[in-house]
Protein 1
Amino acid sequence: MTLLKAEGVTVRYGAVTAVDAVDFAVDEGVIHGVIGPNGAGKSTFMDALSGRRRLTTGKVFLGEDDITKRSPTWRRLRGISRSFQQTSVFAAMTVRAQLEMVARRTKERHLDSVIEALALGQYLGARCDSISYGDQRRVDIAMALVGHPRVVLLDEPGAGLGADESARMLDHVRELCNAREVAAVLVEHDVDSVFRVCDKVTVLQLGGVLASGSPADVRGNQAVVKAYLGSAA
Amino acid sequence: MNLAQLLNGISLGALLMIVSSGLAMIYGLRGVMNFSHGALYMVGAYVAFAVTTKVSFWFALIGAPLVLGVVGAILELAVFRRVEKRSPIEVALIAFGIALLIERGVVAIWGSNTKPVPAPAALSGTWTFLGTSYPSYRLVVIGIAFVVAIALVVWLWRSRTGLHIRAASHDGGTASVMGVNVDMMSLIVVCLGAALAGLAGTLAAPFVSADPSMDTAILINALIVVVVGGLGSIAGAMITGLALGILQVLGNVYVPSVAPLVPYALLIAIILWRPQGLAGTRTQ
Amino acid sequence: MSAVNERVATATPAIDDVPLPQAVRTGLNRRSLLIGLGVAVAVFLVGLAAPSVASSTYNQGILVSGAILGMVALSIAFLAHRSGLVSLGQTAFYGGAAYLVAIATTTWGWSPLAAGALGFFGAIVLAVIIGALCVRTPGMSFVMLTLAFGQALYQFVILDSVRKTTGAFDGLSVTFAPNTTFLGLTQSDIATPSKIWPLVWGCLVVIATIFWLAGRSRFGTLLEGIRENEERARFSGYNTYLPRLAAFTLSGAAAGVAGVLFAFTSAYVSPDVMTFSTAGNALIAAIVGGVGTLIGPVLGALVYVWGQNKFASTSGSNIDFYTGIALIIVLVFLPGGIVGSLERLFRWAKGRLRRRSS
């Protein structure tokens, strides 16, 4: 069943059209990858879905409800959460304090399971700006996963990490989402990892949808091969 | 409203224009809201007093901005450069502390009594302008202020240094990579900003007299102008400064009972409507 | 590390039948709450003896004025520390409340208690209105807006057109009928520092306790989160506007209490209470003392009032020179203020000693 749906979503900054009439749907419990070259509009699209950026035209639905005009706060409380490409944490707070703060608001009863799954246990008492970048990324993702969201929008969870660490992070995310029955929209640069962990993949190019379908279909799609994947296919 | 009243507004606005453009320049490049700007203006007026009594007002017109330029250099080198990593609010408060010191310094040197500064004899009369006779000194103030403002704009948009200043104000990091000497530009801008405050203080001295409490009023007005004009926007500050001067006089004529509230009402309305100010692009 | 790590969750149980685990808690449990309140009561009782230590009426007067300014400084410090909002307009609530008391008693003939209540609630209403317009824009814009509102109110009370009500530059005296009392104190009691001290000191301790509680509570954590990263707080499901408005209002209410007490103790309210320099001095007292502490702002205010009396001279007060120096030194060399730096030094020394002994 469709959980989160975008209809003709368009975002313009001045003369530049960053996202151009994108139709998109995420089904319940599905990990949906979004790939595309730099400037394809992936991050802007995530901003549009999460309510960070106002749409120029188009609509966003959560189930049957039109949520285009709803605030990020409203969306979060009804099950749409997100992480950020540029790590967004509460720098001067301890890891514990910030996770608990989010957990309280989102009625999370198993904060410890999230902490454990993302291996954050040993950092709970540390200020968030005193731990490594990779650990901060995991705090960011933990905050998105806390509170049993229905769909979590992950904007390059592996950004700034090494290739191995990034791949491991994605496997982690997949496990967590499956265990908690959370759907995910996953924007990622590492195409191979996306094909490995995602159930469905959408390719954006120049703000529009180039292809969408199962990883195998997308991998075999000639337009995608030509435009983006090159030798990777 | 008659022409004389309009000219009063313009002369008040012209002074605000000069003070505020310096404040806006410093904010644009340094990111510092210079809470000591009013004190610099006051020092300008006192230097004008000292030079006028010893030599003549015309020397003060050159001398005061030069002295204040040196004060600006000290401010930049000894203070702003050392705390540039601090938050903008902390630096603003440090500048506020410096203003307190300057104020006491002025009292220590010149005492706390008001010091009248006579306008030069050649300008003590009135000129007839479009059928209205008006104090000639004020007309000269308006003239000087506009010449300085135009020169400043031309310099910023036509000269190489001006280009570098604009680049550094827009994005210091990138400008520095592109070979702009941001430190040098900061020094120039703070010196110039202080010198402009000194010039305004000198020009104002003959009609407001030098007084140790003259800094707060002009500071608050200049801060309002810079915020309304758009933090860091020099053109925005100039236009708003001029407009605020005229508005204040208009307020005195048409709504005298609440006229002093006009600048505040303007600021509050603008910030609520456009938090980034009229010409501003950044919100910090 | 403690309880959270020991709980190893194997499978994820059904959501609704599990109680909230230990991990979901705040920095305020029953034990720390009791300790805090105990400390507050003890501090209050000890402080009652202050007038007998400061034996002269002159010194007692400084204590009273210092405690009142201390409330304003505390209110600024709370807002700055918890919300990161630096207010240069706290005089609006302080001065606003003081003026309301003066107008209500002298002009309208209200009873002192009713006038005090009007001042307090008036300050709250003012704080809600001004806060609603200011807290939307943090950072430098907030400083400017609060400055503008504070100064607008100052310009308002000195307007010639409201001279009948506010006295313009002349100010207003605060007088009430000899047979009426303010919380059992007659006007002459109020004018005696040693008699008003328990009330002033009590208000100060209550305000400090409320700020401590608010800071330690979930509300305080949320304020800290919004200060650190407003966007993330919104994306975590929190409204970020209302908590800041609540913090602003709480802070304004504390300044209002100070204003009411000021009006009664000085028996005279002038536009001085609303000037830019009053706003600046209260902020400086808070910063120099240390905004991250409860003692710092009060100590800063006390020292300021003491200095103000000591250095007063005919050519304006030289206290400005010392406050300027103190402000610069603290901002440049002693982040956290004097009390905050002493705390850090103390912790550092304790750490050194522990390492040496082990």
Note: The two ends of chain B are 38 Å apart (CA to CA).
Protein 2
Amino acid sequence: MSEPLIRLEDVSKFYGDVLGVNRVQLAIPAGITTLVGPNGSGKTTLMNLMTGLVQPTRGRVSVLGIPPAEPERLFPLVGYCTQFDSFPRGLTGWQFLCMYLRLHGKPRGEAEQLAGQALERLNMTEAARRRIAAYSKGMRQRIKLAQAICHQPPVLVLDEPLNGLDPMARAETIALFRELAAGGRHVIISSHILHEVDKISDQVVMLSNGYVVAEGRIQAVRGEMHQEHPLQILVRCNRPEALAARIFEQDHAVEVKMHHDRAGLLVTTRDADRFYQLVNELVLEGVIDVESVAPADEDVHSVYRYLIGGEGGAV
Amino acid sequence: MIQSLPWRLWRAQIAAILRLEIKKNFWARRAIPVYLLAAAPAVLYGIHLLALWQGLSRCSGRGDAMVYAGMFQFYYLRLGIFFGCVFVFMNLFRGEVLEKSLHYYFLAPVRRELLVVGKYLSGLVTGVALFGGGAALSFLILVPHIAAFRNQSLFATEAPAHLLAYTGVAVLAVAGYGAVFLFMGLIFRNPIIAAVVVLIWESINAFLPPLLKKISVIFYLDALCPVEITQRGRIFALTVDPPPAGVAIPGLLLLSLALVALSSLRIRRMEISYGTE
């Protein structure tokens, strides 16, 4: 591995006259990175570019230093769970994995061992001997995930991997992603379910109409937007009116709203650090007792709403 | 340099592709027409054999050999093997695109050229088994009766040489047409139109000028058939001397290799875009 990054350098992809992605510049480190954006924003195109299923019209892509046009070097390092819900005909889940591992050149014994491990991790051992054609959508999703991880690659590219999974399986799968990322892997996930993204992402890449509109850690992205979209902070305390009075003396304050129960405030500020400092001072002075302080719009959902518009997807 | 190439890995990968593809080629529903095309002569000669036994027909020796030659050249080569290869080889890639399953291979660490070779070999194994086997079987059904008619043992006649020749020509036909349709399956979205164009080209071969005549598969295959159809039985008169076997066989193999190489170049640029198919 010559380089620990997935790089896209000035990458554009056009399907005839239709724009897939345009002038994408990314360097993705290890950890969980989520591609977020509405349908048609270019998430799948970006993943297909990383894995060589489509080729860039312009620019250069490399995954850990390897160009995707060399599948023989790329796919020992990359597992891709696509959105395509189709499989070679007539195969059982077990055969699907074993044949895939044999294509990697693994001897039969090793292929069976790795297939068994992947099936176990995805709770598919019992269904493994059944034909994939008889699987439910959730099982097909899990067998695709098993295919992506079975050769234990350091890079996982997962296109809407939680689609079709029931809540229990979602939770287990998210835990698996965390475990894989904790082991130093790159886990690239596309999703339009924003609250899931919030739960699992180390960093996000937001896409809209084929353009990357933001990238990085969500707090950092949100911090860069404070001029156009001042930060909202929820404060629960015993004397919100005293806090409100002091806030209005500050030049960074934009708006203060009292909670209906008069036990808290929703503060809009252009400088969160100075606001937190003020709260600390008031607590030390004994003016207020604070129950909780939390940002109200420092999540993916809010950033998505501000940058892209709309509300993102629901479960 | 050649020694440094990962031959063992490539062998293992081609073996994996063959296992998957041969199973599909033989057991898929789309294989049924291929079985019918391959088995038709054997079934017809089986019926002929029954008729001989029942005394409903009589063996004419040289005449039957000529009928076999005609059947082989006009049905088996021009229709049976031709359309069998359309079904088998065009579907190697086009069928996967239509079933949206080609990405299974594209996501494996297999050189795409190797995928072309593996799939072509799987088609070859299927075609040779069905059409080489079909040619040999139908010949074996017929020949003992020709031998009996001539009061000769089977091996005292030209039968073994003819059996070998017909089977060999069937194998070469599968290799040649297979390579043509493998390539076409990679460049055309609608394989039927491509197949019709090739069929027309091969069919009008006899009417083409000598130079163009040579740019076809059937020209070389006809030249390799062991029995020349008599002028009376021949539908089209050849105006070009048929090439000798020493030219026809390497020529066909080179054509096949060239088309497989072109297919390999083509697949390196191939993208998965099922949505536009």
Note: Residues 22-276 of chain B form one domain.
